[in-house]
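Handout, page 2. Input:
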Amino acid sequence: MPLDCAEAANWLLIQGSEPEHKAQPYRIWGFVQGEFHHTDDSPIPVGGWAGEAMAANRIGPDKRSASRGQIKRARLGVRGRVPGGAPLDYALTLDAGDNAATYRSNPVQLIDASLSYRFTPALRLRLGQFKHPGSEEGMRPAPRQPYIYPSAAVDQLVNESFFDTAGEDPLDPNHPQGARSLYHDIGVQLFGALPDQQPDWEHSYALMLGNGHGITRLDDDNHKDVYLYWASEHLLGGKGAARLGTKLFIWRQQGKRTLDGAEAGTYARTRTGAGFIHTQERWRLSGEYVAARGMIPNGTDGGAVAGTWNLSGTQLAGFNLLPEGKANGWYLEGGWQFAPRTWLDLRFDRFDRGTDHASTYRRFDTWTLGLRHQVDRHWQLMANLQWREGEAPDLAASAPPNQLLDALDPRLSLQIQAVF
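Output:
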């Protein structure tokens, strides 16, 4: 399977069920991604943590260094059709990389564990733990991503981190509990591809009911998340994950989250998005818009690495949430295959956080320039350079939040990927 483009593929069907005429009892697959990241490690310029490391200029998941190499993902999976003649498919995936799935959680993490039954092409049922329908960036498999880092809005608003409090305790770093969601949930999903009188069109849908707690947390309340998804695609050729065409999609996620602490309570969390992706033989163009309300990530105190004492020794920097806040963001990106097996990629993404109050409103703009080269069907090299800017639009240029955001560094990222 070629890796040299980000396709307008139907990820619902590709990841949720096996091909009808090529289903096998088992198929082992996997990939390894080794990465190197570097920033200038500019310190916090102002405030109670002035001179300390700035979290946004450190490399995740542990934020201990501004220049480091890591095995980001080491994933192994098996999928296939259960023997016996019934159209029952399964998928199992484990990850042992240095990432948000394994950090502060299990060193070997169960990512996917699901069963899918095909009643008809238009009606399929999936049970277990798997990617929930939604953002194109989130649904696309990691080896197929054209950039090393996702857009800020999708990463912050859709790839959920789970917290017990909103971060109001000055002596609690309020670290996330367990792994990030990785755009996954545990639940049941109805999905399929609807027939169309035009053979060059395909319409797909998904309706999912999930726990709303990602991949590691038990369902600790009575609330469920509802996921809705629709996509229509004009097909231009190719097949499977290498299909070309124009896809339009819209999605929504709605649920509730419970917090403890001074802001204890139950809060609505909604995410809505829409976008497109157009691919041809040598180029692509895509974009997506995401709107969010409730449980908005709001950075760390003073911009410091969570768990760092302030200069007076009276407060630990901790993660914060806006339980009833609003945010939105979008990206527009494209790629051009200018040489055999080699792509030039460019993306602009904007993330507007805490937009409902001047004191919390922050805007982040990021340009990402990428170069990808597919050595062969198994090996790929990628380099990204990001220019990041931030501002508090409703505050004076000299205000501490704007001085802090002026210290955002460019980020260089390199990746070598092997798939099998």
